[in-house]
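agent> fetching stored inputs for the protoporphyrin IX containing FE docking request
agent> found them:
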Amino acid sequence: MGISAFNPTRFPGSISGLLQVASLLALLLLLFKAAQLYLHRQWLLKAVQQFPCPPSHWLFGHKQEFQKDQELQQMLKWAEKFPSACPRWFRGNKLTVLIYNPDYMKVILGRSDPKAHDIYKLVSPWIGYGLLLLNGPTWFQHRRMLTPAFHYDILKPYVAVVANSVQVMLDRWEQLISEDSPLEIFQHVSLMTLDSIMKCAFSHKSSAQSDRNSHSYLQAIADLKDLIFYRIRSIIHQNDIIYSLSSNGQLFKQACKLAHEHTDQVIKQRKSQLQNETELEKIKRTRHLDFLDILLFAKMEDGNSFSNKDLRAEVDTFMFEGHDTTASGISWILYALAAHPDHQQRCREEVQSILGDEASITWEHLDQMSYMTMCIKEAMRIYPPVPSVSRELSKPVTFPDGRSLPKGIIVSLSIYTLHHNPKVWPNPEVFDPFRFAVDSTRHSHSFLPFSGGSRNCIGKQFAMNEMKVAVALTLLRFELLPDPTRTPLPVPRLVLKSKNGIYLYLRKLK
Ligand code: HEM
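agent> prediction call returned; pasting tokens
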């Protein structure tokens, strides 16, 4: 008769025996894991040995060095001491090599390394694998398919649409301003850019600026960016299960749900409008296909359409990238002009001389605003809306100074540090639009607000137009003054925002 080894009444000693075996196995596993971690750390240390950095704690990395919300400032201090690049240890074995030298940037952006999975995967439950996060052939296929949505013919009529959204915002500012209290502009500008992208890319009819859902979408986006920022820096929240059980994980889930409800509604509405191909023909006759039409009617080379999942990812990606980056850009530009009244006045005079008494602003006007464009670029140098982007090296790299990094290392291209690097931009904190005068010379990779290479920003032209329209129309209506008691503190939250908001005094011009 067979006797079960698990029968506790017959073999009282066997339970403790099993426990002993289990403990031994657990211990061996632990030792194995510790050895693995140790060896990986040794490998990492060797990999970055040519790149000195401040001493770091074996578990907490450089956490001590980076005081809360002083990251950007700290990186500038490092850049002074450690030229071109410097490893930053996040925790244990988590390491990225920060780079801020134009020659280094050129090398990395000239390759086709994938986006750093460890970092971008934390964003994926929200924006999915759309153009921003995709890699390889699928990215290429999507990029090729979506590029026509940013063709000159499509962008041209958007100038009037954006101008309309800007006027709505400025009308509201007229009602809100008073002599003695400044206005926090970031919120208002975000609503305006959300309104613009919804009207341009998604041909949405109603105004996002007066819609309550837009407010909750924006709040969800703000929460998601904060939560992702803190998760990247947390030791315990790396594990998906632990994170999903934590209060932050719950908040993240809720905010994703809210953001998706917003984009789902946009897709649903359009799908019901475009029930058949005849409808598409009608649209083609009356206007160019917008971004969402292209997504809905696109056929891949294999004849298949975008799956619902891919469609949703692209809509989530463009809804976010299409409004939050430009909101950051416009808000910081207005702040920079408020802080530099001479440049502000010169821009205003230029806009007045171009627009004269004309009621509307057009595509042709934008190219003539050369001084304002220089100011916009200078503001984007000091306050780049996207402060950094990351890549995971798919093969070893050797930089022009002979130093190299092996495959597998994550590099963070710190656009903010590059733009503030005194070796690249003398007196980097001085606002000097003439750095961008037509006859000025500079390194091809010293100014990268829209990144560079094949993964550069697909919405660059749309964004530049939107920023010009917003700044020009604002300057025609208001004089901008900074609030000396609340100097904005730039902090990286996927895009550059201000820790304490961006407060300006607005004076209505006669
Ligand atoms: C001032 C405004 C903007 C700035 C500074 C900006 C900056 C950037 C940067 C730095 C990247 C590279 C990201 C990376 O490598 O991880 C990027 C990519 C991207 N941007 Fe923008 N962006 C702006 C506006 C826009 C707008 C208005 C849209 C859409 C309408 C847009 C859509 C995208 C998309 C889809 C990508 C991914 C492109 C790809 O990988 O093929 N961006 N942007």
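agent> quick read of the result: Residues 12-47 form the longest helix (36 residues).
agent> awaiting further instructions
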